[in-house]
Amino acid sequence: MPRVTERGRVYRSEAVVLRRQDLGEADRLLTLFTPQHGKLRAVAKGVRRPGSKKAGHLEPFTLTILLLARGRELDIITQAEAVKTFPHLRDDLIRLGLAAYVIELTDRFGIQESDSQALFQLVVNTLERLDSDPSPEAALRYFQVRLLDLAGYRPELSRCVNCLSEAAPEDQFFSVLEGGLLCPRCGPMRSEARPLSLQALKVLRHYQRNSYAEASRPQISPKVALELEALLESYLCHLLERELNVPGFVRQVRRLKEARVYS
Predict the structure, then answer these.
(1) FRET partner for 84 with CA separation of 20 to 30 A, picked from 14, 16, 152, 191?
(2) Alpha-carbon gap, residue 99 to 128, rounded angstroms
(3) Which H or E run includes 80?
(4) Please, are residues 17 and 59 in contact by the beta-carbon 8 Å criterion?
(5) What DSSP character marks residue 58?
(6) pLDDT for 118-138, tens place per residue?
(7) Are 82 and 66 in contact, with CB atoms under 8 Å apart?
(8) Under a CB-based contact definition with an 8 Å cutoff, are residues 174 and 181 in contact?
(9) Model pTM above 0.85
(10) CA 11 centroid distance within chain
(11) In the beta sheet, which residues pair with residue 195?
(12) Which residues, listed in sequence order, are joined to residue 33 by a DSSP beta bridge?
């Protein structure tokens, strides 16, 4: 079980803003992800009033340092200071969409009232990469693979999950129900299994075994990238038992970009 970290009556925490919604006439309810306490919901009072000093520090995709006071039902944000705003995300709809994908997955997999330092650091590092790296898709793939590790759903990529035979250097199948490979003999017998090319399998193994600097180095063909995108999305949706909202938006932006409606 994740370790629960106690919060004092007043406490300070780093946080990434995941979601926000208006509350009353001038307040906002924020969903935050923190390293010591996992997901939190907190109220920023008066933040929608003109001239609010906290407003610019509590935008989505922002890394901020907060001072919070424990409330009976919801904690209250008393101070906020933005540390990183990742400004380039808003200059490119693809990067913005991929960042929103990271935030959605963090929101779905993040645990409330738990020590989440490893996942928190992964989220911050990924937002930095999406903000600046020349290949933002690689940053998202690495995030997805590492998220599966941290959430306890690391896919089995070395042997068949049915017959336990070592995976040969050939095309395989992948089962979202079993969370791993099915060999060419077992795969066709499972209706939920999807083909997995040897090239895509090599990329997944490479991402599992290496740091981001090493994992993102090899160039991946568009065909393999699309295969990995579909497989990882399918597996994540299966684990969450629901469809994700953001991937469809990212695909729509890509189509518009290819049609030169958006550049």
Answers:
(1) 152
(2) 10
(3) strand 75-84
(4) yes
(5) S
(6) 999 999 999 999 999 988 999
(7) no
(8) yes
(9) yes
(10) 26
(11) 173
(12) 16, 39
